Write the structure tokens for this entry.
Amino acid sequence: MVELQIEKTCGRARAGVLNTVHGQVPTPVFMPVGTAGTVKSVTPEQIKACGSRIVLANTYHLMLRPGADVVGALGGLHRLMAWDGPILTDSGGYQVFSLAEMRKLTPEGVTFRSHIDGSSVLLTPESCMDIQSALGSDIIMQLDECPPGQAPREQVLSAVERSAAWAARCKQAWQRNEEKNTESASRVEEAFEPVPHSLERLCHRQSLFGIQQGGVHVDLRAESARRIVELDLPGYAIGGLSVGEGHEPMVAVLDHIDEQLPKGKPRYLMGVGEPRDILAAVLRGVDMFDCVLPTRNARNGQAFTWTGRLKLRNAIHARETLPLDETCPCYTCRNFSRGALRHYFMASEMLGPTLLTIHNLAFFAQFMAVIRQAIFEGDLESKSASWLDAMYRQESEA
Ligand SMILES: [Zn+2]
């Protein structure tokens, strides 16, 4: 079971350690996204060298291809990915609502058409738990309904209701699976002497997180939080943000989470990775983040730095001998000039996306580390202002 040990607070911001079966994770933390069981273009060794300690994988993609049973046959997701750190899997719900066609919502679950082979798939709270149990991730997410950013209030309210009912069913199915896994692990223990080293791995000890919905409506957010918190789950996520509502409405929602969610448990803001949003959320008591931003932008030739973003394809970098960031300790910055990186992108060389992904992941890990440090030093608010000023100055001038 994951547990958050809070070591220091600074206002509502918290610095701590997330204890998992697969190691400890300092928080606040950013989780790179490994959509189909791989963080695109980098190896697990490279991910680790960037400073990332926990990764996310997408249940939706893995259940359709290669299928949860195939992942199970290959020894589970940790084995498939060759990643021995903690993994969080989402529920698949978000992609069902954002990607899939022919969606049909019933109290039972959601039926959709696979974008791989067109087949009809029914995802229920129970099957969602079974799939994530087969994947063997450390943190699993409840099935929820994530309405679009511009959804009318009635639709948001019905998503809150449905998500809360599904959370309760997920809890039952998760507990049933945990008992099954514990039993089979103890059978292995009886059959083999001495206890196999991997015993702990066999007994997943997965932790289920509930998801708060409610759009930008403060009262619906409060009701949603109340409904999932009464289930007493290992952690809680804030869903349905960064879906086009903008920075200020997001912050207005986050302003209430410290009173809505229990202090002793991890809080995870789903799908948010813009540095400005991460800072605002940490200041309001969020511990965990994930987003495709650093990896997707890297593949498009965009680097994150402390003084803003660099577009490597710009001609201005053609003869530049400086690294992306002289203060960055990552492999890319220690070995390659901006000019070399630009050349790889212009020539469509595979190394370009790999090197930029390494840098961007290292930048996000460093960003979270300095945020954590500032919480310990008690001056996160003042430091945030100067970081944001340097990072977004170009944009505000443009
Ligand atoms: Zn770097």
Summary: The pocket of zinc ion is lined by residues 324-325, 328, 330, 332-333, 359, 362 (CB under 6 Å).
